[in-house]
TrEMBL record:
GO terms, biological process: methylation
Keyword list, A-Z: Methyltransferase, S-adenosyl-L-methionine, Transferase
Domain TsaA-like: 8-132
Protein name, UniProt field: SAM-dependent methyltransferase
GO MF term list: methyltransferase activity
Highest classification ranks of the organism: Archaea, Methanobacteriati, Methanobacteriota, Stenosarchaea group, Methanomicrobia
Stored InterPro entries: TrmO-like_N (IPR023370), YaeB-like (IPR040372), YaeB-like_sf (IPR036413), YaeB_N_sf (IPR036414)
Length: 162
C-alpha cells in the first residue's frame, strides 16, 4: 500500500446562486486562463469540502443511492463527492471568460457556492468523448448526451437519505 500523502491548494472558488454560476480564479493562477477562451466546455475538478470528514472519507459502500440501482453499491460506482478523497469532476459549458476579474462564467456546475476548485482543464472531444460505452441496466435510461439532461428528472433518480 502506498502511504504517500499529497497536498493540493485551490486554484479558484465556485460562486453559485439562484441565477448564475462562475469560477473565480485565485490571483497566482490567473495567467493560467490564457488560451482558455474558444473552448465551449471545461472539466472542473473540485474538492467536496462539505463532505470532507473522517466518516465520509471511510465510506466505501453506500445503500441504494439510485432509485433503480442495486441495494448497495461501491462508492467507486457513484459520482458522489462522499469518497476516500472528496474529489469531484464536472464537465460544464463555458458562458464567458472575464479576464479582468479572472472569472469563468459557466452555465451550471453541481458544486455549492464557495466550493474550492482544484483544477480546470479544457474539454477535448478527441480525449474525453468515447463512442462505444456501457452502463449498468439500472442507469441505461439516463440521457446519453449532456445536452439531453435538460428536462430529465434527475431528482427522481436518487433516493432520499433517511
Amino acid at each position: 500500500m502506498d502511504t504517500r500523502t499529497f497536498s493540493v491548494k485551490p486554484v479558484g472558488t465556485v460562486h453559485a446562486d439562484d441565477e448564475s454560476f462562475s469560477i473565480e480564479i485565485a490571483e497566482p493562477f490567473r495567467p493560467a486562463l490564457l488560451g482558455l477562451d474558444g473552448f465551449s466546455h471545461i472539466i472542473v475538478l473540485w474538492w467536496g469540502d462539505r463532505v470532507d470528514t473522517p466518516e465520509c472519507r471511510n465510506e466505501t459502500v453506500c445503500k441504494k443511492p439510485y432509485t433503480r440501482g442495486p441495494e448497495t453499491i461501491g462508492i467507486f460506482a457513484t459520482r458522489s463527492p462522499v469518497r476516500p478523497n472528496p474529489i469531484a469532476l464536472s464537465v460544464v459549458p463555458v458562458v464567458g471568460i472575464d479576464t479582468a476579474s479572472s472569472t469563468v462564467r459557466v452555465a451550471y456546475i453541481d458544486a455549492d457556492d464557495g466550493t474550492p476548485v482544484l483544477d480546470i482543464k479544457p474539454y477535448l472531444p478527441a480525449t474525453e468523448r468515447v463512442r462505444d460505452t456501457n452502463v449498468p441496466a439500472w442507469a441505461s435510461h439516463w440521457p446519453q448526451w449532456y445536452e439531453d439532461n435538460q428536462g430529465f428528472d434527475w431528482a427522481a433518480e436518487f433516493t432520499l437519505e433517511e
